[in-house]
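Hey, why these numbers?
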Amino acid sequence: MIAHQMEEQMPITNFAKFKKLMKGLHENQFARNLFTITFPVDNDHEIEFMTSECILAKVFRDIGDEDLVEIMCCKCDFDTTPAYCRWVSLKRTKFLMKEDAYCDTKNCWR
């Protein structure tokens, strides 16, 4: 299902397509079981995902291996974003894995 959504959106030539892909990846049933996400910023040039709950962060924190989930999951966003579209930048200043109350993932059209 997710791969099919990506194929429909590729190549990403504008920010509207990028946002549609990202929302599809974050609003499907699988993602809803992993995360609680809101979109406090959503306009023609930027979209922000605020993740207030992450089952991966909870599980890895409970077993005492926060660094592993950060490497396996959180940092991957910085590699996959330009792979989806080279005109989109990613910024994150808050991390659940760093004991913040949420993750703030902001994508901006450059």
